[in-house]
Amino acid sequence: FPVLARILAKLKLLYTKLGKDALTAAMLTDAYGWVLFTLLIPYSNIGGKPLLSVINCLGTHPIVGAFVFGLILPHGKFAVMVMEMSDDFVSGILCPVFFAGFGFRLNMPFLLKQDSAGLMMLIAVLLCIPKVLSSLIVTFFFGMPARDGLAIGLLLNTKGVMAIILLNVAWDKKILDPYCFMVMMLAIILMTVIVSPLISAIYQPKFRFMQSQLKTMQKLRFDMELRVVACVHNTKHANSMIHVLEATNATRVSPIHVSVAHLVELTRHGTAILVSQMDHSDSTVGTET
Question: What domains, with CATH codes, occur in the chain?
Answer without folding.
Answer: 2-208 (1.20.1530.20), 213-288 (no CATH)
